[in-house]
Amino acid sequence: MGIRSFFGLDCEAAANACDRAAYNEAGLADKLRLRFHLFLCPPCKDYTRKSEKLSYLIKKADLKSCTDEEKAVLRQRMDEKNSESLN
Amino acid sequence: MAKTRLDPDKWVDRYADYLFNYTIVRVNDREIANDIVAETFLAGLNSMKNFKGEASERTWLISILKRKIIDHYRRINSNKGKAEVKVNLPDGEMEGDWLEEKVPDLTDRTAEDDMENRELGLAILDCLDQLPEKQAEIFKKKTIEGIDTEAICNEYKISPSNLWVIIHRARTSLAKCLEKNWF
């Protein structure tokens, strides 16, 4: 993306606002400036469309991941097993 | 083709999330899923000498995991004579309601949807595997675990702007990868 700036938001800042918006961390002012920017900038509009689609797919997949604590327990159980086989 | 070598020290970091997702959609219980993943890793350690190096490490671990999931259901089924069915009968106020009305409306979610979502989840994890390790870790923490930006920045000793650059790169690569492999 170039550095064309619309309404005080260049493409890099627009991508950043779009990413933050995906995590509900964009402020109202950023969201409004992003809307204006997207109106005039097809590449950023394309990025936002893809980003929204990605968020939708991730939500749909309902991914789970092991927490750090759960991973620590897994490592501990493997270590115990390793030391058992060494003894 | 070069033979794959096993590296059990990296199993938890590399495969725990993938195996956990694979399991939890099949057993629907976080604790049981963690136990099955642990049993898979332990069985993997036990049978390392049988690994021929023809499949990838992950494929080999998944084949063990599948057997562990089947074992889990066999164990449950061995207790089927003791099964107890609980029905919550309606109280007085609701008397007269048809049983059919109490059945959840599943018309908007079919078995095909569930299967598609499982496959989608694994496709996303496949794409995440292709990202640099740290980028994937940070993305998972932020997106899947929903950990606060500040907490992640403190853990990895990075600034918020660095975090957003990492998230942006991860999202761009994932979107590209899914476009190629999913749509």
Automatic annotation (TrEMBL), chain A:
This is Zinc-finger domain-containing protein. It comes from Salinimicrobium catena. The lineage of its organism: Bacteria, Pseudomonadati, Bacteroidota, Flavobacteriia, Flavobacteriales.
TrEMBL record, chain B:
Gene3D superfamilies: 1.10.1740.10, Winged helix-like DNA-binding domain superfamily/Winged helix DNA-binding domain. InterPro entries: RNA_pol_sigma-70-like (IPR039425), RNA_pol_sigma-70_dom (IPR014284), RNA_pol_sigma70_r2 (IPR007627), RNA_pol_sigma70_r4_t2 (IPR013249), RNA_pol_sigma_r2 (IPR013325), RNA_pol_sigma_r3/r4-like (IPR013324), WH-like_DNA-bd_sf (IPR036388). The keyword Ribonucleoprotein does not apply. GO terms for biological process: DNA-templated transcription initiation. Residues 123-174 form the RNA polymerase sigma factor 70 region 4 type domain. GO terms for molecular function: DNA binding; sigma factor activity. The keyword Ion transport does not apply. Residues 12-75 form the RNA polymerase sigma-70 region domain. It comes from the Bacteria. Keywords: DNA-binding, Sigma factor, Transcription, Transcription regulation. Belongs to the sigma-70 factor family. ECF subfamily. PANTHER family: RNA POLYMERASE ECF-TYPE SIGMA FACTO, RNA POLYMERASE SIGMA FACTOR HI_1459-RELATED. This is RNA polymerase sigma-70 factor, ECF subfamily. The lineage of its organism: Bacteria, Pseudomonadati, Bacteroidota, Flavobacteriia, Flavobacteriales.
